[in-house]
Amino acid sequence: MLTIHAAPLLLPVGAAPVPDGAVAVDGGRIAALGPYDEVAAAAPGARVRRWPGVLTPGLRQWHAPWLLRRCYHPDPREYDALGELPLWGADLAALELTETRWSGSVRRGLQRMLGHGTTALAAPGARFTDPLVAQAVARSGLRVVPVTGAPGLLLGDRPDLDPFAEGHDLAGTVHGPLEVGARADLAVFDAEDETALTAKGAASCVATVIEGRLLYRSR
Fold first, then answer.
1. Rounded to two decimals, what is the model's pTM?
2. Rounded to 5 degrees, what are φ and ψ at 144?
3. How far is residue 61's CA from residue 160's CA, in Å, rounded to a whole number?
4. Per-residue DSSP letters for the chain?
5. How many CB atoms lie within 10 A of CB 21?
6. What are the structural domains of the chain?
7. Is the CB of residue 145 less than 8 Å from the CB of residue 60?
């Protein structure tokens, strides 16, 4: 089914921002993008999803292997004891983690990446060798891409689920621009423009679409 994702501002990357913009998705590919009126006129009968904020390409997470196997993502039932943030280093070493707990952590980590507008995970050789992680990633729908061009270092005091934590602008954080014929990997953020988005960070994510499928929405 043809679906149109529309937002007050479309930031395709590599092309000018489009006020009241839209992206038409046919299956898993982008069929059209531009001003909403033009996209809608070319796709009569399409389902329309209207989002607040900015519509962008999906983001790329450079440190997925670290975040998924060297960090523990607490279950909500553990928040009182462990907090909500990923645990690593000495805090991780203090936990007694069975494979069952690790499996739950990896699944939660992937869900939280989706909740940060992430659609692509960078990994050496564009694959995960850890079977537990590889299986969970395959089920998640997240795309695995090479680490070519990675900054190579974790910035800040701790691993961060926010791809913008590397300090890049939008163009340096997405996996690729929105283009007709490309995979429909999109993200929507509750921000007025790119400046506001990079200031607020990817936790402002409203929705994440991978290959045309809506895999996360916060509202």
1. 0.94
2. -105, 130
3. 9
4. -EEEEEEEEE--SSS--EEEEEEEEETTEEEEEEEHHHHHHTSTT-EEEE-SSEEEEPEEETTHHHHHHSSB---GGGHHHH-SSPB-HHHHHTS---HHHHHHHHHHHHHHHHTTTEEEEE-GGGS--SHHHHHHHHHH--EEE--TT---S--SSS--S-GGGG---STTTBSS---TTSB--EEEES-SSHHHHHHH-GGGEEEEEETTEEEEE--
5. 23
6. 2-58+175-217 (2.30.40.10), 60-166 (no CATH)
7. yes
Q: How many CB atoms lie within 10 A of CB 24?
A: 24
Q: Which of 32-46, 103-117, 162-176, 194-208 has the lowest mean pLDDT?
A: 162-176
Q: What is the pLDDT of residues 106-115, one digit of tens each?
A: 999 999 999 9
Query: What are 195-218's pLDDT values in tens digits?
Result: 999 999 999 999 999 999 999 999
Q: What is the distance between the alpha carbons of residues 49 and 68, in angstroms, rounded to a whole number?
A: 31
